[in-house]
Amino acid sequence: MERQAGMFLPSVSAHGLSEALGGPFSIRILLLLLHRALDLGVNFFDTADVYGDGRSERLLAQLRQERKEKFFIATKVGRRLDPHTAGGYNKKNLTAFIERSLRNLNTDALDLVQLHCPPTEVYYMPEVFGMLDDLVQTGKIRFYGVSVEKVEEALKAIEFPNIQSVSNHL
User: What pTM value is reported for the model?
Assistant: First the structure.
């Protein structure tokens, strides 16, 4: 089964893999799991820069080197902030998060970047979404979206015209 993932995103499998890639499993076992997922038609992988401190992104980079099939990777950024406050969603930090994920995934452009459950105040800071627009313009990211914890955040996020995905942790 496939579903359309946003107005401009490609169709992706309705099933994906996420946090397990940063878990306590061996790299060999995780790569077997990833290869099997591709064999079964999974073409969408959701990850984050904090899952296994980037380990999950690096595993997906290795999978891309080992397989010729195209697949889509969504990665989330922002949870590295300590403290995790709205003020941390600035150009310097967003750029650093993107650059780290680019290195981890061994790519020139990230398929989809989602802000990783940012504080509610971020959704009232249009400059944050303007910075993401700038990263799209420079070619560092193809699409962006948000991972939300509250309905209010999802409703506010879709007011920004270039948001391509809203996922939830409700």
Answer: 0.88
Q: Which of the residues 51, 89, 123, 144 is marked catalytic? A: 51
Per-residue pLDDT of the chain (170 residues; tens, 9 = 90+): 454 555 555 566 555 555 566 667 788 988 999 999 999 999 999 999 998 899 999 999 999 999 999 999 999 999 999 999 999 999 999 999 999 999 999 999 999 999 999 999 999 999 999 999 999 999 999 999 999 999 999 999 999 999 999 998 65
Q: At what angle do helices 126-137 and 91-105 cross, to 10 degrees?
A: 40
Q: Is the separation of the CB atoms in 162 and 136 below 8 Å?
A: yes
CB under 8 Å to 30, separation ≥6 — which residues?
Answer: 20, 21, 59
Asked if 123 is an active-site residue, the reply is no
Q: Give residues with Cβ within 8 angstroms of 64, minimum separation 6.
A: 71, 105, 106, 107
CA 70 to chain centre: 17
Within the chain, strands assigned E span: 2-4, 11-13, 44-48, 72-77, 110-116, 141-148, 163-168
What tokens were used for 41? 């038609």
